[in-house]
């Protein structure tokens, strides 16, 4: 059922409000309906279970007696256009809080229509404790528009039996150990790792670990940065690791789906979100109980590898007629109680590293949480979607893995990224 949100009444002088309230209450004319208002929340399908939504709604409405919460589930397909339309809706019936992908915030801010939550972030929402991979893409021009909700990132899923057969007693903790262990595993018809040639999210982590980036911004202008020495070192590590298996050099991790390849039983490792283990076990039930997880190793044992952090932020339309109510919903969803509930229910990483103990009992999610502390997101350009639409990073990777000169190919890819990020372009 669609709720029509009552507009908030103009503020009257305090003395008049108190006198009127006393008089009306004495006459029995002041009803709950007259005092209540509706806050509309858009959540994406699959982000939270219906049971979670029901629990949250009941608890929130109990704690905030004057607010009715109207949760509307949205589809990811076509959501960009729908959000842009909602941000221009001044009817008073649009959403007050919207879940968006963490890397989408800059685009929505650039096109106008998001409410600045910088003050609330510093005062009420714990901005200094957020995971960087969620907080940074929610920030634009030094203002906070997106509030971190949940995170997910890649870990290494490994076949325990194959590690044991190779004499590897514990997962590697550094890149050097990872290469050495993977080389041991890559024998006897077994693949040390299945790593597709165009898994650019995994490559991004190696580039960030080296101090490089996919693109850099200077004086408001974005330029591709794959040709920097640091980025080239990240690509070289990727090349060495990818060679210790039979992953295709001209395809990404979904073509074919790497979980299906791993389910064949002769692959020792893949880089994936922990949820991929369910798909593996469905295809090969005999692997149940034989899968392990570890964070992607970093250059030293003291710091896990940097990872691309996916997930969602919560935003508020500027044209919402109840910013106060919207912030109260966000404060609850992003707070300790419901972050802990969501993480345990959906196997997500909470929005703050200090909440990671909430998922310590789930091996895959615990490994994910370790990596999330060093998470990053794609360059915070409002035009980054233009890069991914015809991704030059994938072609660059394939050309290097098939013998192309890395520096030459990186410069070509950087030029294409720069063209895509040019704000004067089409």
Biggest sheet architecture: 6 strands, mixed
The 3D shape can be described as globular
Helix content: 40-55%
Q: β content, as a range? A: 15-25%
What is the CA–CA distance across the termini?
41 Å
- Please tally the helical runs, counting DSSP H or I stretches of 4 or more residues: 19
Structural category is alpha/beta
Poorly predicted ranges: 6-32
Mean pLDDT: 91
Mind sketching the topology for me?
Layout: H1 14-27, H2 32-35, E1 37-44, H3 50-63, E2 67-74, H4 79-87, E3 97-101, H5 105-111, H6 118-123, H7 132-135, E4 139-140, E5 143-144, E6 147-153, E7 155-159, H8 160-165, H9 175-185, H10 200-209, E8 215-218, E9 221-224, H11 229-242, H12 258-262, E10 269-272, H13 276-283, E11 291-294, E12 307-315, H14 323-333, H15 336-346, H16 363-372, E13 375-376, H17 384-389, H18 392-401, H19 406-421
Parallel strand pairs: 1-2, 1-3, 12-13
Antiparallel strand pairs: 3-12, 4-5, 6-12, 7-10, 7-11, 8-9
Question: Your description of this structure?
Answer:
The protein has about 425 residues and is α/β, with parallel strands linked by helices. The chain contains 19 helices and 13 strands. The strands form 4 sheets. Strands 1, 2, 3, 6, 12 and 13 form a 6-stranded mixed β-sheet that branches. It is globular. The chain starts with 13 loop residues before the first helix and ends in a 5-residue tail after the last helix.
Summary keywords:
alpha/beta, three-stranded antiparallel sheet, six-stranded mixed sheet, 19 helices, 426 residues
